[in-house]
Each structure stands twice: as structure tokens, then as C-alpha cells.
């Protein structure tokens, strides 16, 4: 099986080219590929398949040639992956599988159509505008934190840390507990503290994340969008541009009236072949 390895601010992916949807990709194979000791190691898998050849993409094959078939490291599906979409488009461009039309590259995802554009060294992807819902709580190591539920195509809970508590003090080796009635399919939980002003943006937030299906990651693009939308709301704004620092680097999020742009580095770092029978079962 051919693969490419890539990452966006340290959120890393095994990319599997499968244009005709011929690969027998199972949760077990995804988990084995993502195993950091016995496999290639990644936060998730991006299968590159023609929309027309994937059951969840075929209905939108007229809008984009490619479907981003994203899987979490534990073999579960997610509706959307912001960093994954940026790395996916980097792969399409570098492989000559797509070229921008009117400046953007469309991609079908489980959460609908997204568009990406190249911005200097970065790739920016336009997703849905985050929808803010109720408050809820996350419990972690004796702390109970209140947060805002946010839908970015996938579910998030954004929790600001109380003053005096640092992000580095959190133990994210275990999943935070959350309300299963509000998040029946699980949730990605972001923890935030305010950052110092950054020139050119309307605000600055630092975050860590525990991702559904992938544990703590160095970055989560949809999580950064959720965090930016909550920070803008807390500043009394509907739209604006936020700098969001994650352990793996810096993302810029622009929330508009009807969408959300996520921008940052997206890199391909290796290609190779892997023999599925040598992976853990
Ligand atoms: N890291 C991703 C989000 C991946 C999916 C998430 N773990 C979920 O299950 O919803 C991103 O960059 O958005």
C-alpha cells in the first residue's frame, strides 16, 4: 500500500491514495497504521478517493472531484477535520490531482463541500461558520470546567481555564469526562487561555485539545475554529480574525457572516509503501 505522511501544525496524517475506492479500509487497519510504535503513527488517516467512487461522496460528485475520507486514529469516522482538509489539498496539488479553479480547490467531506486556497506557504480552508450552543462541563483530574458546545461539522466543547491555571498544568493523557446526553457521539474538548495581542488579528488564544478518537493532539483545526468563534462571541463580536496558538504552531481563523477560514502550514514529509500484513492486528 502506498502512503504519504503529512501534517498541519503537528496534527499528523497517513494519506492513502485510493482514487477508485478499491482499498478495503477497515477500523482495524486504520488503527494499525496510526499506531505510533508498531505502525506508521498518526492522528488519523486521509483516504484520497474520487467523490463518485465513495458512497458518502457520490451525491456531490458534480461539485468536486475528490472526497476526503477522514478516519480518527482509533478507527472511528469524523465528519470533518480542518487540518486534514488543508493537508489533503496540499497532497492533491503536489500530486497534480487538482488545480485551483477561480483560486480555490473544492473537496467533498462528510460535513459537506469545503474550499481551499493557497496563501503563500500556507493552505487555508473555508468551512461552515461554527454554531454555538449550550454551556456544558468537562471534568478532568479533579477539575470541573464550564464550556460552550460548538458545532463545526464535528462536535466541540470549548472550556476557558480559570485565571491562574496554566495549560501546561492539565493532564490530557486521559479523556475529559463530558455529558453524553449532549454529545452522544463523543466530543473534542478544547482548553483555552487568552494570549497577548498579535498584530493584524482581533485577538489571540492559546489552546490544548483532547480529540475524540485520537487523544491529545498537537493541533486541531476545527477546534481552533470553535475556540475563535467563542472568543469572538465573548468579545461581543460576530465576525473577526483570531490568532490561535496550539502546541504544534500557529493557526489563523477568520469567522465571516457565513463561513470560517482556517489558515496555517500544511506539509508533506515522506512517502513510502507499507505492507498491511506486517502491521499489528
Ligand atoms: N484534528 C482535526 C479533527 C479530527 C476529527 C476529530 N477528532 C473528531 O472526531 O471530530 C481537525 O484538524 O479539525
UniProtKB/TrEMBL annotation:
Site for Could be important to modulate the pK values of the two catalytic cysteine residues, residues? 156, 211
Question: PROSITE patterns recorded for this chain?
Answer: DAP_EPIMERASE (PS01326)
Q: Where is the signal peptide?
A: none
Q: Which Gene3D superfamilies match?
A: Diaminopimelate Epimerase, Chain A, domain 1 (3.10.310.10)
List of residues binding substrate? 11, 72, 82-83, 154, 188, 211-212, 221-222
Q: What is its EC number?
A: 5.1.1.7
Q: Which reaction does it catalyse?
A: (2S,6S)-2,6-diaminopimelate = meso-2,6-diaminopimelate
The cellular component terms of Gene Ontology attached to this UniProt record, alphabetical and capped at eight, are: cytosol
Q: Can you tell me which residues form the catalytic site? A: 81, 220
Enumerate the Gene Ontology biological process terms. Answer: lysine biosynthetic process via diaminopimelate
Q: Mostly located where?
A: cytoplasm
Q: Does the keyword Acetylation apply?
A: no
Give the top-rank taxon of the lineage listed in the UniProt record for this protein.
Bacteria
The record's subunit annotation is: Homodimer.
What does this gene product do? Catalyzes the stereoinversion of LL-2,6-diaminopimelate (L,L-DAP) to meso-diaminopimelate (meso-DAP), a precursor of L-lysine and an essential component of the bacterial peptidoglycan.
Q: Which PANTHER family match?
A: DIAMINOPIMELATE EPIMERASE, DIAMINOPIMELATE EPIMERASE, CHLOROPLASTIC
> What is stated as this protein's family in its record?
Belongs to the diaminopimelate epimerase family.
Record-given protein name? Diaminopimelate epimerase
Q: Which organism is this protein's natural source?
A: Micromonospora haikouensis
Amino acid at each position: 500500500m502506498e502512503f504519504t505522511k503529512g501534517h498541519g501544525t503537528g496534527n499528523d496524517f497517513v494519506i492513502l491514495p485510493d482514487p477508485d475506492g478499491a482499498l478495503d479500509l477497515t477500523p482495524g487497519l486504520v488503527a494499525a497504521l496510526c499506531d505510533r510504535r508498531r505502525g506508521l503513527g498518526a492522528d488519523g488517516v486521509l483516504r484520497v478517493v474520487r467523490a463518485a467512487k465513495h458512497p458518502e461522496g457520490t451525491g456531490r460528485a458534480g461539485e468536486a472531484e475528490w472526497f476526503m475520507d477522514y478516519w480518527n486514529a482509533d478507527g472511528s469516522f469524523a465528519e470533518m477535520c480542518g487540518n486534514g482538509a488543508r493537508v489533503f489539498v496540499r497532497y492533491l496539488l503536489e500530486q497534480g490531482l487538482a488545480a485551483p479553479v477561480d483560486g480555490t480547490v473544492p473537496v467533498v467531506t462528510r460535513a459537506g463541500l469545503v474550499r481551499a486556497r493557497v496563501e503563500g506557504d500556507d493552505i487555508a480552508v473555508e468551512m461552515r461558520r461554527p454554531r454555538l450552543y449550550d454551556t456544558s462541563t468537562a471534568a478532568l483530574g479533579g477539575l470541573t470546567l464550564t464550556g460552550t458546545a460548538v458545532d463545526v461539522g464535528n462536535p466541540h466543547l470549548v472550556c476557558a481555564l480559570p485565571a491562574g491555571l496554566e495549560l501546561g498544568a492539565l493532564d490530557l493523557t486521559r479523556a475529559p469526562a463530558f455529558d453524553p446526553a449532549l454529545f452522544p457521539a463523543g466530543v473534542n474538548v478544547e482548553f483555552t487561555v487568552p494570549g497577548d495581542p498579535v498584530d493584524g488579528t482581533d485577538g489571540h488564544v492559546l489552546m490544548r485539545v483532547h480529540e475524540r478518537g485520537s487523544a491529545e493532539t498537537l493541533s486541531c483545526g476545527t477546534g481552533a475554529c470553535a475556540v475563535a468563534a467563542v472568543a469572538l462571541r465573548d468579545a461581543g463580536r460576530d465576525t473577526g480574525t483570531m490568532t490561535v496558538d496550539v502546541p504544534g504552531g500557529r493557526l489563523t481563523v477568520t469567522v465571516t457572516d457565513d463561513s470560517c477560514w482556517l489558515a496555517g502550514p500544511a506539509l508533506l514529509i515522506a512517502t513510502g509503501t507499507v505492507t498491511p500484513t506486517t502491521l499489528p492486528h
